[in-house]
Amino acid sequence: MRVLVADDERVLADTVADGLRDFAMAVDVVYDGEAARERVTVNRYDVAVLDRDMPGATGDEVCREMIAAGLDTRVLLLTAAAGIRDRVEGLGLGADDYLTKPFAFAELVARVQALGRRANAAHGPVLDREGITLDIPRHTASRDGLPLRLSPKEFAVLHVLLRADGAVVSAEDLLEQAWDENADPFTQTVRVTVMTLRRKLGDPPVIHTVPRVGYRLGG
Question: Which CATH architecture describes the domain 126-217?
Answer without folding.
Answer: Orthogonal Bundle (1.10)
